[in-house]
């Protein structure tokens, strides 16, 4: 009878210790789950800051190269460029880096995708129109929407092999490049229009002098 009581107490002690360990493990796991949510929120916030930095730099660059900047006095242009350069310098002081964890296959896919985009960019000066069409096919390969034009199937398979975060960055880079080309096209058309209008005015003035 006494031995049975001793065994019962021993079992009770083991049960209490086991229960206590399980509770502690559960609390630790819950804490880690909460921390994981905060870590992901931190990465998302840092990524948002990275994107905002890219947007700001693009907007400043766009203003500096806008048609409006060409149509003001030299003194005003110089003053505005000084302000734009100051803003660009302050923007560049913000350093945010979100590292993407990649396996060897994802690393290789990223290198291939980057190389393809760089090759298209290097052809901008030689053939802007063809480069734009090529970029559109690359962008369509990254888009989940129904494409409005041809899709570069090879590039699409490469992008699919990239890490998800890299896929988003590749798409953002292509969007930025296409916007820059669009702005360049508009600037060229405005310049041609202003030249055409100027030539027409000169011709009219010349005709009026003879009439």
TrEMBL record:
KW Chaperone (keyword) present: yes
Single GO biological process annotation from the record: negative regulation of protein ubiquitination
GO MF terms, alphabetically ordered: adenyl-nucleotide exchange factor activity; protein-folding chaperone binding
Transmembrane segments annotated in the record for this chain: none
Domain BAG: 109-189
InterPro entries reported for this sequence: BAG2, BAG_domain
Coiled coil: 25-59, 164-194
Keywords, ordered alphabetically: Acetylation, Chaperone, Coiled coil, Phosphoprotein
PANTHER family hit by this protein: BAG FAMILY MOLECULAR CHAPERONE REGULATOR 2 (PTHR12334)
Quaternary data: Binds to the ATPase domain of HSP/HSC70 chaperones. May interact with NWD1. Interacts with HSPA1A (via NBD), HSPA1B (via NBD) and HSPA8. May interact with DNJC9; the interaction seems to be histone-dependent.
Primary role: Co-chaperone for HSP70 and HSC70 chaperone proteins. Acts as a nucleotide-exchange factor (NEF) promoting the release of ADP from the HSP70 and HSC70 proteins thereby triggering client/substrate protein release.
Name of this protein: BAG family molecular chaperone regulator 2
């Amino acid at each position: 009878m006494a031995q049975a009581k001793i065994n019962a107490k021993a079992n009770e002690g083991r049960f209490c210790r086991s229960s206590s360990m399980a509770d502690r493990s559960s609390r630790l796991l819950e804490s880690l789950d909460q921390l994981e949510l905060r870590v992901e929120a931190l990465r998302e916030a840092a990524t948002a800051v990275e994107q905002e930095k890219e947007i700001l730099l693009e907007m400043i660059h766009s203003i500096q190269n806008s048609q409006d900047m060409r149509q003001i006095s030299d003194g005003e242009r110089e003053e505005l460029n000084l302000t734009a350069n100051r803003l660009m310098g302050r923007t560049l002081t913000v350093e945010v880096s979100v590292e993407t964890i990649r396996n060897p296959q994802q690393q290789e896919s990223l290198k291939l995708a980057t190389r393809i985009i760089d090759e298209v960019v290097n052809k901008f000066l030689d053939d802007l129109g063809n480069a734009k069409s090529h970029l559109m096919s690359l962008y369509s390969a990254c888009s989940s929407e129904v494409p409005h034009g041809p899709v570069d199937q090879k590039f699409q398979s490469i992008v699919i092999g990239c890490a998800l975060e890299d896929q988003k960055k590749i798409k953002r880079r292509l969007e930025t490049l296409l916007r820059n080309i669009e702005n360049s096209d508009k600037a060229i058309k405005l310049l041609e229009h202003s030249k055409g209008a100027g030539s027409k005015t000169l011709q009219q003035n010349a005709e009026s002098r003879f009439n």
